[in-house]
Amino acid sequence: MTKALIVYGTRYGAAASTSEEIAKVFRQEGLEVRVVNAKEEKVNNITDCDLVVVGSGILINKWTSEPEKFLKKFQKELTRKKVALFVCCGSASYATMAQPEVAAKAKRKYLEEKAVQYNLQPVALGFFGGVYNYNKEPWWAKKAMEAERPKIEAAYKETQPGVYDTRDWNAIRSWAKELAQKAK
Ligand SMILES: Cc1cc2nc3c(=O)[nH]c(=O)nc-3n(C[C@H](O)[C@H](O)[C@H](O)COP(=O)(O)O)c2cc1C
Questions:
Q1: pLDDT at residue number 183
Q2: Which CATH superfamily is domain 3-130+166-183 in?
Q3: What is the pLDDT of residue 100?
Q4: Which of 19, 58, 174, 175 is buried most, with the most CB atoms less than 10 Å from its CB?
């Protein structure tokens, strides 16, 4: 059985639920999957994995530190495996709206440059929307988040009170399905 490992880092939950959805599709496609929140669990060995998916939410242009640590730790071994990277971010949300050049720049920065940094040649790069959670505003970002709020409210569905999910689940599922085929 083809074995997949999904390792993610999150602060607002988007990378977590995206990972779970990817895992669901992988299982439907017959893969064996392990999903790891890199903040809560350490991966000690990836020898058995045929496909490794590493993902993160983006805050201030950066990946969370935990999946980065994973990439560093297994950098050499990952160069010999099928690897896919994904991010959940605000820039991908706006991509679908008006500014494709903003999205292209963000994709380059968050995904393509990350692959180069770790000398990886990913079989897939997933550029997905994020979650805006107005119940969890960091004090230092409150002003900026509140300024954006009318736009967010107008454009996206409120999935729970104060929470706006900007992801395209069909795009995530298709990405995962295609990736599962490549892993087999
Ligand atoms: C304080 C803060 C900073 C953010 N910075 C960026 C950013 O630099 N680029 C971007 O595309 N999205 C940014 N976002 C949107 C996040 O990427 C989005 O909330 C995403 O869901 C975060 O991933 P997570 O839910 O897995 O933590 C930011 C969000 C917050 C709350």
A1: 95
A2: Flavodoxin domain (3.40.50.360)
A3: 86
A4: 19
